[in-house]
Amino acid sequence: MKIKDIASVSKQLGVSRREFLKYCSIVAAGMGLPLGAGEQIAEAVTSAARRPPVIWLSAQECTGCSESLLRATHPTFEHLILDLISLDYHETLSTPSGHQAEAARAASIKANKGEFILVVDGAIPVKDNGIYCMIAGKTALDILKETAKECKAIIAMGSCSSWGGVPSADPNPTGATGVQKILTDAGIKTPVVTIPGCPPNPYNFLSTVLYFVTFKKLPELDDLARPKFAYGRLIHENCERRPHFDAGRFATEFGDENHRKGYCLYKLGCKGPETHANCPSILFGDTGAGTWPVGTGHPCFGCTEKGIGFHKPLFSRASLHMVTPPDTYPHVVEHQGKSALAGIAVAAAAAGAAYVAVDKVAKKLGDDDGKGKK
Amino acid sequence: MSKRIVIDPITRIEGHLRIECEVENGKVSKAWTSGQMWRGIENIVKGRDAREVWLFTQRICGV
Ligand code: SF4
Ligand code: SF4
């Protein structure tokens, strides 16, 4: 390991070498990488011949995605992003305007052809040939297609660029579309990673970039191109209110007694049971426990799931994918081997109990008037 | 003689802005600004359950 390089980088970041290594290890652990990967990441980012060039295109966005990144309050992470990558073009952050800004973009594309990472925030309108988003007289649609052919990989930052997000909500007035769909339709094969969220968690973005810089490939992705390390689990699986769900204790109105007690928000429309993301595990804003929507008492609205956030009504019930009791519960149907008669009787009794339990859960879920509370 | 100057994109702001101005004898005589992006959030919130409208309007600007 090149200690000297790490020392100089940590000096640049204004943190101790030890702290710098610690942050890299946290990032590695967040991605579920084996022990030692943190050092690998630290080495990769410090020993790179030059900072990886990044071009950031904004289309139909609210700038929340950029803000979430800039507001990552932990100075190390913020610096990591801005000092360790070379952000060659970003409309909101660029010092020059007009043709000077555009010239910087063109120059970086030319100099880093095939090497740079393209980040896109905002959806791309395709209706009426894309006239609903223009930059320097060109449609975002054309700029995206042009730039996507030249870069190494694309990160679709936020729900808008992942699959349309807010502007694609019914009736989708401008034909707002996600990056991947546009590229697939245009036959452009550059790999795309989606980091959905509205706004997405900056650490999921940062981890993806660091993974890419360190291992020279993209992390493992799911069928919606989301990194599995961040979007592999349902919100519902890691939610701190889950015991209340399992016990049938629900808030039925904002501010009611059960809501104030911190009960499960399922009946208020929580989409946690059908939304994949790591919000309950890594939280937002670096301000400590409970700083995520459900933690503050608001139902998850499903922004990281295609077709849920901005599409499914806020107060409608989520579809449950996991009501079946886990394996540790007695099986509903026991295999009948050559076990002793007593064993079968026990199994039958257990099956009966499980049946009753499932029936109870179903009844509670259907119980709108809050009588299910304990 | 007037000269037309176009500045697009205007950076360091949220959204996509274009400024055009006409300069006559070293002075700006006319100027136009135009937002270059439209999502139609007005149309998206039409007819919606009022309780969920904040979800959309909140995202007009994220700065
Ligand atoms: S995904 Fe959300 S935060 Fe990001 S640009 Fe779209 S509306 Fe804004
Ligand atoms: S329904 Fe929502 S609040 Fe309830 S346990 Fe699941 S994720 Fe948590």
Instruction: Give the spatial strand order of the biggest sheet of chain B.
Output: 1-2-3
End-to-end CA span of chain A: 58 Å
Q: Rough shape of chain A?
A: globular
Number of H- or I-type helical stretches of chain B: 2
Strand order of the largest sheet of chain A: 2-1-3-7-9
Helices and strands in order, then pairings?
The complex is a heterodimer of chains A (374) and B (63).
Chain A: H1 3-13, H2 17-30, H3 37-47, E1 53-58, H4 64-70, H5 75-84, E2 86-90, H6 98-111, E3 117-121, E4 124-125, E5 134-135, E6 138-139, H7 140-148, E7 153-157, H8 158-163, E8 176-177, H9 179-186, E9 192-195, H10 202-215, H11 228-231, H12 235-238, H13 242-247, H14 257-260, H15 279-282, H16 341-365
Chain B: E1 2-7, E2 17-24, E3 27-35, H1 41-45, H2 53-57
Antiparallel strand pairs in B: 1-2, 2-3
Bound molecules: iron/sulfur cluster (SF4) (2 copies).
Residues 235-236, 239, 241-242, 245, 264-266, 270, 272-273, 294, 300 of chain A line the site of one iron/sulfur cluster (SF4).
List descriptors:
heterodimer, A: 374 residues, alpha/beta, Rossmann fold, Cytochrome-c3 Hydrogenase, Chain A, domain 2, five-stranded parallel sheet, two-stranded antiparallel ribbon, 16 helices, 40% helix, globular, disordered C terminus, B: 63 residues, alpha+beta, three-stranded antiparallel sheet, 2 helices, 3 strands, 16% helix, 37% strand, binds iron/sulfur cluster
Describe the structure.
The complex is a heterodimer of chains A (374) and B (63). Chain A has 374 residues and is an alpha/beta fold. Mean pLDDT of chain A is 83; it is low at 339-348 and 366-374. Chain A contains 16 helices and nine strands. The termini of chain A are far apart. Chain A has three domains: 1-47, no CATH class; 49-230, Rossmann fold; 233-329, Cytochrome-c3 hydrogenase, C-terminal domain (Cytochrome-c3 Hydrogenase, Chain A, domain 2). In chain A, the strands form three sheets. Chain A has a five-stranded parallel sheet with strand order 2-1-3-7-9, with helices on both faces. In chain A, strands 4-8 form a two-stranded antiparallel ribbon. A two-stranded antiparallel ribbon of chain A has the order 5-6. Chain A is 40% helix and 9% strand. Chain A is globular. In chain A, helix 1 (3-13) packs across helix 2, helix 3 (37-47) crosses helix 10 and helix 7 packs across helix 9 (179-186). Helix content of chain B is 16%, strand content 37%. Chain B is elongated and about 55 Å long. The termini of chain B are far apart. The mean pLDDT of chain B is 92. Chains A and B meet through helix 4, helix 6 and strand 5 of A and helix 1 of B.
